[in-house]
Amino acid sequence: MKNLTCKNCGGMMTLDASAVVATCHYCGSSYVLNHEDTDYYMDFYNQMCDFLSGDEDERNRKLKSDRLWENAAEQSFQSIDGNNIEIKYMYRYAEKEADVYIARRNIVYHFREPGVSKLEQYRKVVSFIDYPSADTRQLSNFFPKVNGGFELTDGTYILVVKKEDDEYPLRLFGKLPGRHVAWIISRMENLCCVLEYNSLVHPQINPDTLFINPYAHTASLYGNWWNAGKNHSYMTNGSTLLTMKQNLQGLRNSAAYLLGCDMPSKVKETSDIPKALADFISGEPADNAYDDFAYWDKMLIQAYGKRKFVKMGTDDEQIYTQKE
């Protein structure tokens, strides 16, 4: 999947779910894509949708992934102790504070400004996440595990976070059918309940910070923990007050994006989006994550009836590349 470059500042841009508008996290510029680029990314998204109901043998999928990763792009960094750090990655994007490289089993954040503060904040916040019981302790699998941090020769730092082979940035899936958005909402509600238990606010729950496993139907919150903090505290920039409802609003913003809408209020009932799903996303969050999850359970049954696992088959090659 090729990168889009900002014409104003040269930074990497992120694409909306409809493959029409790209936005730069560096300078805030937005551009409407030309027909050629839109066709390229729509072809990519359409391939993803084509494979949503696929049922490929896991062994064959792994073999295809092995072949694909042999041709991954490479990026190298020089650490202050003289070591050369090599990264093989299939996808790269930019956050305001960091360039992000998606490797096979790791996510690598390169903080562009010198200093260790954001890396230390990330580590500090995730190290204190607690889980209320043995029933929910398995949820720790869906929060970051830091593999390492390194100072580079230019004074910047990289942070390495573990991920599973089959976990991918949510943004790579583009616009999804309502039924798949529904199970992703359920997983995000689980994540928000853990945040609620810890009185933690993650102000950037979005398609870049969320990673999903389309085969196991799991979702993990890996990105941008340097901006997270306790309820009613301020972000590290000192200007944004953190409140618990930001978690639940981020959930709704992400769900709206997956349905091709730029804000929750624009999600309306269609042949693909049941009224209960639209009402949940476009409505106000509950006062806390526990009540919100209970409300979602009711709306989910209204929307789709009895719970059912719907296959979402795809593989690395379909996610990271597109047909010629």
Task: Outline the structure in words.
The structure is a single chain. The protein is of the alpha+beta class and 324 residues long. The chain folds into 3 domains: 4-50, no CATH class; 58-162, Phosphorylase Kinase, domain 1, CATH 3.30.200; 174-304, Transferase(Phosphotransferase) domain 1 (Transferase(Phosphotransferase), domain 1). It is built from 9 helices and 15 strands. The chain has helices at residues 35-50, 58-69, 117-127, 134-137, 178-197, 245-258, 275-282, 289-304, 316-320, and strands at 4-5, 12-15, 21-24, 30-32, 73-78, 84-94, 98-103, 106-111, 146-151, 157-162, 168-169, 200-201, 210-213, 218-221, 229-230. The strands form 4 sheets. A 6-stranded antiparallel sheet has the order 5-6-7-8-10-9, with helices on one face. A hairpin with a 5-residue loop joins strand 2 and strand 3 (21-24). Helix 5 runs antiparallel to helix 6 (245-258) and helix 5 (178-197) runs antiparallel to helix 8. The radius of gyration is 19 Å and the shape is globular.
Structure summarized in a few sentences:
With 324 residues, the protein is an alpha+beta fold.
Mean pLDDT: 86
The beta-strand count equals: 15
The biggest beta sheet, please?
6 strands, antiparallel
Provide the low-confidence segments as ranges: 50-54
In the CATH classification, which architecture of the largest domain applies? Orthogonal Bundle
The main sheet orders its strands as 5-6-7-8-10-9
